[in-house]
Amino acid sequence: MNRTNDNPRFVQRNDDLELEPELREAVGNFKASLDAWGEDAMSRPREIVAPARVNWSLVTKWALGCAVFMATVSSGIFENHRRQEMAKVEAARIAEQQRELVAQHAREEADLMAKVDSDIAREVPSALEPMASLMDENQGTGN
Amino acid sequence: MINATAEAIAAREFDSVVADHRAQIFRFLLASTRDVDLAETLTQDCLLKAHRNWANFRGESSVLTWLMRIAINLQKDHWRNRRLQFWRQTRTNSVDLDEASEWLPSGERTAEQRMLAKEQVAHVWAAVENLSERQRTVFLLRYVEELDLKQIAEATGMGEGTVKAHLSRALARVRKELGEKR
Q1: DSSP string of A76-111, one letter each residue
Q2: Do the Cβ atoms of B141 and B28 come closer than 8 Å?
Q3: Is A143 part of a structural domain of the chain?
Q4: For the whole prediction, is pTM greater than 0.90?
Q5: Which of A98, A110, B1, B50 is least buried, going by the fewest C-beta atoms within 10 A?
Q6: Does some domain include residue A141?
Q7: Between the CA atoms of A114, A119, A121 and A125, what dihedral angle is there, to the nearest 10 degrees?
Q8: Does B115 contact chain A (CB < 8 Å)?
Q9: Which structural domain range is residue A112 located in?
């Protein structure tokens, strides 16, 4: 027993596969067209076409182009990197020079201040001691 | 001596198979690819493969069904290889739908009838173009090669129910195309 034939959905599907007159005519013309084309194609002498091959000249050109491009880009990157390194070294050298200059100025200033301090710190002659005590009192009163 | 006789018989049998079915295989592949050169190449490959395996053919299905199955597999392999070999310079000789629709048998038709037939063929081509690969194969096997559902199922390796479903969808597309362009 064929179970599928008892299934109403299957019957419906089979009905779908039946062609109405217009569709049958269109499909018939399609088949006739293919028959005509096929017969014509088979009766014609066939041209021998060389099989498609890898185009090595195109591949070589692409490879060469890629190599040149990579070389250009990498040399540019290398040059840029080298310049950056040189700039860093130069900047470090200038900074060191400036630090040395500042340190030298600081040393000179310290020497000067030491000299001034030593000059100021000299002992007051004994004849001027009363005047010096007066100055100290004036400073204490705020005058 | 016995072997030689058997081989000669097999060769004669295969010659008759080629004579009987070559045009049909070619037409199916032509309809599937719209490329005369490709269809001829695949037909040759199909018959070569069939010849190599002729001794193993047990007759469980008809010869045509067996050949169609080989042709369908070769076609699938061709497109798969082509997708993978995207770097190759491939040329396609597929004709466009307008050119494919130009072919009509030279019968006793009026100019008006020929024009109408040409329009119908163009609409069917347009619908077939938009079908999925399976739907197209099933449609062509049923309505161009006139195989029955069982033969289509054997040729495609699908179940009969699946074949019916694909065929139903394909017909719906063709109906819609014919209805829209009317």
Answers
A1: HHHHHHHHHHHHHHHHHHHHHHHHHHHHHHHHHHHH
A2: yes
A3: no
A4: no
A5: B1
A6: no
A7: 170
A8: no
A9: 54-122
